[in-house]
């Protein structure tokens, strides 16, 4: 791609020079029609993000692989099935309890590949540095990336560096892309979900988002909450060793567990029913969310996955997950059903039910 930076509108290069886009053809729901400019919610992994992808990016780029809208694209090349993924990281602050932007960049891309069943092999890395950022900070992020890559068994094979003027960035932004090999017989995608599938989450949710918020806002909850940032490739391979017939995996990052479940329900045209009491929420996260008026279901995670598993394999997969350090807190939280296709419903502790919607934007921006 060209390194040319788009110019801000000026008298000589103003709004009249921007391309004309006909929004009347966009389909419902239509939050983009009410937001003619980009807002923070467009990067939050919720309904606004989905509209941005479906109404602008997908039509512009086209292609069958992109239309899958998975965590990574899976394709055949040279006699192997490969998975390919990319992600960008703009977390603030750069360092937080349990990790840093460097750990996130490696683990996030490794996890996106793992959700396709792939063994991650190589990563690329792009550093966008703001003029004036201290060199020890850059070195600290690079060291964290290197350590995370070695721990995940991947190699950072190529990269790039750009610098923007002071005041035009936020210290460091990162972009990573990754490629991995998908084993034979593995086919993880939401279209394989069927009624009766068991929904399993790999451990306590909400830790990453609350950890970021506590540092960013200087909040104290009586106990330090650490991010769950981790590479999930080993856990996924442990699950696949039980059976390659897992139906779909997702890592519930932006938009949290609620967004991941909604995406799967929509893509599979099945309903999902979960038991709120079965969802593992650490007391510290529950207390923090209660104080701040947040729902843990929508808070980001960076070291958890949700799996839809055929019922006949669910017990064995759950046992294998619990035997792995990153799945010790795994729990069955619900099932896929034929009723209310495309909708996620939660049974509440009081015996009622509620709809778990796809979030519009994001409760906590800049968390990855």
TrEMBL record:
Residues 71-182 form the PurM-like N-terminal domain. Residues 1-20 are annotated as: Disordered. InterPro entries: HypE, PurM-like_C_dom, PurM-like_C_sf, PurM-like_N, PurM-like_N_sf. Residues 195-340 form the PurM-like C-terminal domain. It comes from the Bacteria. Belongs to the HypE family. This is Hydrogenase expression/formation protein HypE. The gene is hypE.
């Amino acid at each position: 791609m060209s390194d040319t930076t788009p110019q801000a509108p000026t008298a000589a290069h103003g709004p009249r020079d921007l391309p004309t886009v006909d929004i009347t053809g966009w389909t419902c729901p239509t939050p983009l029609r009410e937001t003619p400019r980009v807002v923070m919610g467009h990067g939050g992994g919720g309904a606004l993000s989905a509209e941005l992808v479906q109404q602008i990016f997908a039509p512009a780029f086209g292609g069958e692989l992109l239309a899958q809208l998975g965590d990574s694209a899976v394709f055949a090349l040279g006699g192997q099935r490969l998975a390919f993924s990319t992600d960008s990281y703009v977390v603030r602050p750069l360092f937080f309890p349990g990790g840093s932007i460097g750990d996130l960049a490696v683990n996030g891309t490794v996890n996106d590949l793992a959700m396709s069943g792939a063994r991650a092999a190589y990563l690329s890395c792009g550093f966008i540095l703001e003029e004036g950022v201290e060199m020890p900070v850059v070195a600290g992020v690079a060291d964290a990336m290197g350590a995370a890559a070695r721990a995940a068994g991947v190699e950072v094979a190529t990269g790039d560096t750009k610098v923007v003027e002071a005041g035009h960035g936020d210290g460091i932004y990162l972009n990573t892309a990754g490629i991995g090999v998908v084993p034979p017989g593995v086919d993880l995608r939401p279209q394989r979900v069927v009624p009766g599938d068991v929904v399993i989450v790999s451990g306590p949710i909400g830790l990453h988002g609350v950890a970021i918020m506590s540092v960013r806002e200087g909040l104290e909850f009586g106990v330090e909450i650490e991010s769950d940032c981790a590479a999930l490739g080993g856990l996924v391979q442990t699950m696949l060793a039980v059976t390659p017939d897992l139906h779909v995996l997702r890592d519930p990052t932006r938009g949290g567990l609620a967004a991941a479940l909604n995406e799967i329900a929509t893509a599979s045209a099945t309903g999902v029913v979960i038991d709120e009491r079965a969802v593992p929420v650490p007391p510290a996260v529950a207390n923090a969310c209660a104080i701040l008026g947040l729902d843990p279901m929508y808070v980001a995670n960076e070291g958890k996955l949700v799996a839809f598993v055929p019922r006949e394999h669910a017990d064995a997969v759950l046992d294998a997950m619990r035997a792995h350090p990153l799945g010790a807190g795994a729990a069955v939280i619900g099932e896929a059903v034929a009723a209310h296709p495309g909708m996620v419903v939660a049974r509440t502790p009081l015996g009622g039910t509620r709809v778990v919607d796809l979030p519009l934007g994001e409760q906590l921006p800049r968390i990855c």
